[in-house]
């Protein structure tokens, strides 16, 4: 973050060039840290009073004044000055203007380096909790569809080619699982974020008798950073959070891309809520899935932000370097982007309608029951590779006859495998194919019901 300006330091004999002020300022974007900065400063002041560096009265004055400054910022009545470079100096300047020497005592035993590390940890901790809440809301939207869609079959794809039939809830729960992994990654990341940096000062610590564990406890941190030199350069927690956001954006992009395809006339699987679509400036019939397209497109920004952060910290010598000021904008942008995408994804998922008749009318296309038929042969003792070849030959016959596998005469099946009898038709057709599944985690109706119950319990959706 920003250093002390020439006017605030006795070592300089000239003022900074105004172009340098414009180039180095960060208050235009780091002002959003004001609440956590004030929380950290109040905890620091209270600790200084506990160890006797400040009097209880001085700490009380600092806390009261900082809370008044926060109220002014909340209300939009606080004027941030670019000449003061960052949010920290803007707040400290106001504190000093109002309290004089008492305000000047606040920065005792800390540096801007550990201050900003603490602020960003506090901010990221809150951001993780907010993103987790929105992920849970999206999970609830998917699980909330499962009962109403319980009997609906969908074609599942590999290589964007029809593969096997699945129950619609099985599809929805696939996204719930992805979001669950996102949430566990965030929870794991939060453990490493929730470490207190304050009190390590510039890089070597301080000779003053501060109590870092006291500050950590006041701010709700689980532990304190053990190495002061590491604190000044550490941005691992920030990069890890950006990575978690990137994976969330990737999952949202996959979902959005799929539903863009599904909403086309060619697929005609789903009707998106019109309040989340837009029209065309020239074509009056258009109902465009713009929100889903932008969710897909905005993932590129989040991916790019992660790459920027990775390159930013590459090769920086210990400890603090001004380069690290550049970590805030990509961090904030990734958070804002993913948060906005999640906010819109949940109501889209909840409000979309599957076009059941359109889906059903074409379920018999693509030989979705071929794999189930192959496994029927395996159960009768045919080796898998042999069964695979035989069913491929049957599919070829059906393609040439322009019919379903279920429409082939029994003679066609028996010509390839004499062990087959009328029971072969018990596994043909998408409904029978789905009913034949048995394995845990499969699209078997009984398994899907178990998984729906499981997620309802996990998300308190009884």
UniProtKB/TrEMBL annotation:
Q: Which SUPFAM superfamilies match?
A: L-aspartase-like (SSF48557)
Give the Gene3D superfamilies listed for this entry: Fumarase/aspartase (C-terminal domain), Fumarase/aspartase (Central domain), Fumarase/aspartase (N-terminal domain)
**Annotated keywords:** Amino-acid biosynthesis, Arginine biosynthesis, Cytoplasm, Lyase
Q: Which GO terms describe its molecular function?
A: argininosuccinate lyase activity
Record's catalysed reaction(s): 2-(N(omega)-L-arginino)succinate = fumarate + L-arginine
Superkingdom as given in the UniProt entry: Bacteria
Q: Which GO terms describe its cellular component?
A: cytosol
Q: Does the keyword Protease apply?
A: no
Stored Pfam families: ASL_C2 (PF14698), Lyase_1 (PF00206)
List where in the cell it is found: Cytoplasm
Argininosuccinate lyase C-terminal domain sequence ranges: 367-435
Pathway the protein takes part in = Amino-acid biosynthesis; L-arginine biosynthesis; L-arginine from L-ornithine and carbamoyl phosphate: step 3/3
Predominant cellular place of this UniProt entry's protein:
cytoplasm
EC number of the protein: 4.3.2.1
Does the record carry Amino-acid biosynthesis as a key word? yes
Identify the residues that the record assigns to the Fumarate lyase N-terminal domain, covering every copy. Answer: 11-304
Q: Name one GO biological process term.
A: L-arginine biosynthetic process via ornithine
What NCBIfam families is this protein classified in? argH (TIGR00838)
Q: Which PANTHER family match?
A: ARGININOSUCCINATE LYASE
Family per UniProt?
Belongs to the lyase 1 family. Argininosuccinate lyase subfamily.
Q: What is this protein called?
A: Argininosuccinate lyase
Q: Which organism is it from?
A: Blastopirellula sediminis
- High-level lineage: Bacteria, Pseudomonadati, Planctomycetota, Planctomycetia, Pirellulales
- This protein's encoding gene: argH
